[in-house]
Structures are given as C-alpha cells and as structure tokens.
C-alpha cells in the first residue's frame, strides 16, 4: 500500500468522455510555510488513474499506486459511476483519505475564473454557465457531485481553464457582435489554460534560462489550441467563446463561417442539439479522415487519401495559427509543442513548422524524428521545444495554496 500525508490533494480532471485522477503529496518548507509557489515543483505523485472512452463498449478504467495496478473494462455512461470505480481502488491501495480535492473545469462563465472553493453558491453559478461549455461542464459537474458524495467533509476546489487567458487585452477578447450580447458574456475566453500554466511554470523554473519574451504554445491533442504569451502573459489564443473554436480537432470543427450554422438551421431544419452534435462530435479529423485518433490516421495515410488530408489540414491550421500569433507578438522567440499529439507525433510538428522560416522557425528534422526536447536547427532565432504537460499538478498546487491561505 502507498501512503500520503495530511497535505495530500486528490485531483479530478474530467473530459467530455474521459476522466483522469491523480493523488499528490505536496511539500512544506522548513518553518511550516507551504512549499507551493508556482515554480516549486515539490509535489510527489502518489497514485494516478483514468477512465477512457466512456459511453462506448471500449471503455476502460485503471489506477496505479506504487507498483500496484488495477484495470477493468466497463460500459460507464456517466462520470459519476466511472469515478466511483477508480476511487474505490484508491481507497484499497492508498492508506489515507484525501484531505482536499481539486477539480478541473473548462469554463466558469463570465464571472468565475480564479480557483474557488466549491460551495452551494459556486455550484449555482456553474449550473448557470453550462451553456458556455455544454460538452464539458455537465461531465465536470457530475464528477464534482460524485466526489462531494464520497467525501462530504473534504474541502473541494474548482480550477478553471479560462483563468489563464484573463490577461488578454480587449482587442483580443471582444467579438464583433452587439454590445448587449457582449455584456451577457459572449466573448472570447480561451481554454487549455491549466496546461499553458504548467508549461510556463516549467520554463520559468529552468536554472539560468530567462523566460523568453515572445512564446507560442501549441497544446495539441483530441482538443487543440494555441496561445500567444508576451512577457509571461496571454495576449491572444485560438479557441474563443467555446472549446469548439480555433483549429480543427479530433471531433470538433474548429472555426467555421457562421453562415454554415445558419444554413444547417434553415436549409436542413436542424435544431440546437443536432447542430451541437455535428460541431462537437461528428466533425474535425473524424469527418475528414474517418478517425479522431492521430496515430490511426498516420497508419492509414499512405493508402487512404482522406486520412492524409485530415493530417495535412490539421498541420496547415496549426501553421496558420503560429503565423498569426507570431504577428500578434511582433516576432517569436520560442515555440512549444505539448499535449498528446504535440509531444508524441513528429509528423504533425513537421507539418506545423513547414514554411515558417520567415518567423525564424527552422525545424531540425532529425532531432524532431528522434523526439528530442529541443528540435530547432542550430543558430535558429526561434527555439522549438517539445514538452510534457501536467494539468493535474497545477490543479494540486492551486488547491493546496487556496486552502492554505484560507487557513
């Protein structure tokens, strides 16, 4: 059995059809001060697990604590049931109940961005914000309710992907729509903020390496977005009002001409639910290439024109976004690839960098194929770095820090 101390945090990261959990033990500085500054990195991962492909016959749950691993298949339709499976294993394998729980939420609406303790008032606000992220928030809310039922006396904290982007200037946040809609919260928010925060904190903690002034970070996975960071703060990003915008993704459209949605409503007589299904679940790589999985598309690409087109469209969209964000920054000092695809698929990195030499982006193809951490050519004015991300670790930091401040 593994153990964790009283300064442990259980993190629950809910996706639309999956969830991840991690149990961290966080350090304390000599003298009793919390060792939780953003750049400390003093956390120990005690256990971790996940449930994938919920709602399908291929759903699987696993949990690992130390050298012990539990795994099983299932047909969980909802996050609550799946979460209870991995939490039962956690009870069996780890000799402590978590004294705090942190949750990832994609969106908190226009009024909730900073990490916040979960209470009745916050839950009311989150329910009111479901329309801002209908694919993600219901799943996260179900996980919160399941965790509160299992740990009724344990303080729980919500951490928001949108928080990172609150530094964006009005020119990047405002949509060209009537002011009444803007005042109701219809604006550009940005997402993947917890991932971006981890990348920046990791870059900032590198000894002897000052944080570059102009950075583009590409978080590429089944959901994908890019952000422009100037002097450590977000100034623009590709996702907008919802996580459906920006570059095309595994099953999401990315940016569309708004007229497409009007056409679907008027000519095809589709209602909001049907349009939402097309935009969020039936489009992107899946629609073009027949699969939402990048590795599957790459395996098929030599013999399947649709798979090859999907890969090329994805790379092209990322390349355009890098160029646009570089322009917003006034140049580019560092390009970072992270997320499952960004970290592990060299073919996508090569497509994303091709033709960007005017921005100082020069990929070393041999280093890229070998999966090295630095993949730019020697002497290139723009460094290209490949990094792992860790949203759960950032959530643990915020949760511990907020509760420590509250006493």
Automatic annotation (TrEMBL):
Substrate binds at residue 104. One of its GO terms (molecular function) is acetate kinase activity. Mg(2+) binds at residues 13, 391. It is found in: Cytoplasm. Its EC number is 2.7.2.1. The record marks 192, 252 as: Transition state stabilizer. It comes from the Bacteria. It catalyses: acetate + ATP = acetyl phosphate + ADP. Pfam families: Acetate_kinase. Mg(2+). Can also accept Mn(2+). Keywords: ATP-binding, Cytoplasm, Kinase, Magnesium, Metal-binding, Nucleotide-binding, Transferase. Gene3D superfamilies: 3.30.420.40. The keyword Thylakoid does not apply. Pathway: Metabolic intermediate biosynthesis; acetyl-CoA biosynthesis; acetyl-CoA from acetate: step 1/2. ATP binds at residues 20, 219-223, 340-344. Its main location: cytoplasm. The active site is at residue 161. It is an enzyme of class 2 (transferase). Its cofactor is Mg(2+); Mn(2+). NCBIfam families: ackA. Belongs to the acetokinase family. Catalyzes the formation of acetyl phosphate from acetate and ATP. Can also catalyze the reverse reaction. Homodimer. This is Acetate kinase. The lineage of its organism: Bacteria, Pseudomonadati, Myxococcota, Myxococcia, Myxococcales. The gene is ackA.
């Amino acid at each position: 059995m593994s153990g964790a101390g009283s300064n442990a945090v259980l993190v629950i990261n809910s996706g639309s059809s999956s969830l991840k959990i991690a149990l961290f033990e966080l350090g304390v500085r000599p003298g009793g001060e919390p060792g939780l500054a953003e750049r400390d990195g003093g956390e120990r991962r005690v256990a971790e697990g996940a449930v994938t492909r919920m709602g399908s016959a291929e759903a699987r749950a696993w949990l690992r604590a130390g050298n012990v691993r539990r795994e099983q298949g299932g047909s969980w339709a909802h996050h609550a049931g799946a979460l209870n499976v991995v939490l039962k294993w956690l009870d069996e394998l780890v000799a402590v109940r978590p004294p705090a729980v942190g949750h990832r939420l994609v969106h908190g609406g226009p009024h909730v961005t900073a990490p916040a303790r979960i209470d009745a008032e916050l839950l009311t606000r989150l329910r009111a914000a479901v329309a801002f992220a209908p694919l993600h928030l219901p799943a996260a809310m179900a996980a919160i309710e399941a965790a509160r039922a299992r740990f009724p006396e344990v303080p729980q904290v919500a951490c928001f992907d949108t928080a990172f982007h609150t530094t964006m200037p009005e020119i990047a946040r405002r949509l060209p729509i009537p002011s009444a809609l803007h005042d109701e919260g219809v604006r550009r928010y940005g997402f993947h903020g917890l991932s971006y925060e981890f990348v920046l904190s990791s870059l900032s903690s590198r000894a002897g390496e000052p944080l570059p002034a102009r950075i583009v970070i590409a978080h590429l996975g089944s959901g994908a977005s890019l952000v422009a960071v100037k002097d450590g703060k977000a100034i623009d990003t590709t996702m907008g009002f919802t996580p459906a915008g920006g570059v095309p993704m595994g099953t999401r459209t990315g940016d569309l001409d708004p007229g497409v949605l009007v056409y679907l409503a008027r000519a095809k007589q589709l209602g909001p639910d049907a349009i939402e299904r097309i935009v969020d679940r039936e489009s992107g790589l899946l629609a073009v290439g027949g699969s939402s999985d990048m590795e599957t598309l790459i395996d098929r690409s030599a013999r399947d024109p649709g798979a090859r087109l999907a890969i090329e469209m994805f790379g092209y969209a990322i390349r355009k976004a890098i160029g646009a964000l570089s322009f917003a920054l006034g140049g580019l000092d560092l390009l970072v690839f992270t997320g499952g695809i960004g970290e592990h698929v060299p073919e996508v990195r090569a497509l994303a960098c091709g033709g960007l030499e005017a921005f100082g982006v020069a990929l070393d193809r041999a280093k890229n194929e070998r999966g090295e951490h630095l993949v730019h050519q020697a002497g290139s004015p723009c460094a290209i770095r490949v990094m792992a991300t860790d949203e759960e670790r950032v959530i643990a930091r915020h949760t511990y820090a907020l509760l420590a401040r509250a006493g």
